[in-house]
What does this fold into?
Amino acid sequence: MTIDLLILIQMVIAALSGSLLYIIIGIIPGTDETAVLAPLSIILVALGVAPLVVLTFFIAAMTTLNTTASIPTALTTIPGGVMATPLIPSSQYLKEKGQSTNSMRKMTIGSLIGTLVAIPMSLLIFLIVYLLEKAFGFSLSKSISNHSGYVYLFGAIFLSLLSKKKIISLVSILPLSIIIFYIQKGFNVTATPFFLSITSGPLVASIVFLIFPKYLKNVEVKGNKEIVIDDNEEVLNAFKIVDKRELRTSILASMLASLTFFLSPVAMTLLIGDGLTDNVSNKKDKAFLKVTTMNSISNSSYLVGVIVSLIIFKFPISPAALGPGGVIFEEGSIFYDLSFSATMIAVLIGSLLAISLTVFLSLKYARKLTEIIFKYVSQESVIILLLTLAVVLIYLDTFTISSVLIMLLFATFSGILNNYGVTFGIQFMAFYASAFIASILGL
Amino acid sequence: MKKEEKKYILLWSEHIDLVKFLIGLIISIVFTLLVIRFLIPKDSENKLLYSLIPILISFLFNALWIKPKRNIKIEENKDDN
It folds into this structure.
């Protein structure tokens, strides 16, 4: 596929609009990355937007979301998203020390480092796989697609064994796949409703649970939430924000996170982030180093996971590709037909424009932006918007209310499994493996 | 301080008003589905694009009548150094 000027302009617009939109979504507290990234890329694909433009939008949105989710974490110690939760102890300590402005700046530069390291690292992994394929004379992507059923099943087992709740994860693979198989057969739904149900599952389950008085009592709170936002003055020289050690450690952490792209980004943020920073004795230095490094890891692991899945494996091999990018990585997706250079151009435009815009706006307006969003955008309206989008996309898939209701039930089930520790990655693998498992069982 | 005693629900680490949330959710979903069912031509190719209009209208409506439950205080940054 060649890229003409018109597509190029659309890609730039997609990168900028994706970035601006997800700066706001990122700052909204608590929003789950998978749940907020999936619907918009599904909409763009369904609208028939050119694949390169969708890819640019998705990369820009992902890069921005991972960067801005740290802003409320630093300024208010409320995590902006799931990926920001490992940052809480350090950012809380820094806030108590009156360092939240510096902490936010270092997090932002950490994200910048992670993004910049991710691109050459993806190319390095590409080169290694290419050389291995050349030396041993086999095609990795072809062998994966020829045995995709086995790959998904073993992927689900592998991720279960790596997760915290190994037994329940392993045990849930079979029933989950069988339920998915029968829903697909009985209600004629495509993959999209499943992506939406699995990604919004935990949210749907926590809403459905409210019908139980005991659960309702547990989540009851009184009065408004008190939020203190630290004031900060603007800084424009991004290069003076991190010191040499923070720069070195973040680069090393991003490289390690790039190599473990097939593992959970949150788990890697904790593992690599803690592993590389625990030797620092000064508490404040350590906290600064941690927030910088952890942000670099979340940006690099997400980005590498998506790039590598697209250019090498032609298969969603990383949790970032399996969940948030679900619609891009469907089997036989047109995104796999994009050439190497076209994919890389989309990645470069999406990630570099997004990170430049986000870093600039974060360093200059983080406090003001947070204040406006916290003041005017209610959590209710955002959750309602997400749920309505999901319901409409499911309805448009089959045009029957029964399919919406069955997917609501499935989302609740998936959310309950998630609460018990069956991660998104395992559930998506089980979804992909469902047809294969059904054929083994003779269903 | 009657207002401060109001009971809310903790959802996605934020305080939400359950009744307003449920009313907003039902209005938003029913309104959008009704528009899709009766106003958008059945064989329209841009069904999804048209569906986004009622979704956005409901979002703006909800954002206007459901206010955030946050008390925001801006504090001067007191650096320890």
Observations:
- Residues 18-39 of chain B form the longest helix (22 residues).
- The beta strands of chain B are 7-11, 14-16, 70-75.
- Chain B touches chain A through 51 residues (CB under 8 Å).
- The first strand of chain B starts at residue 7 and ends at 11.
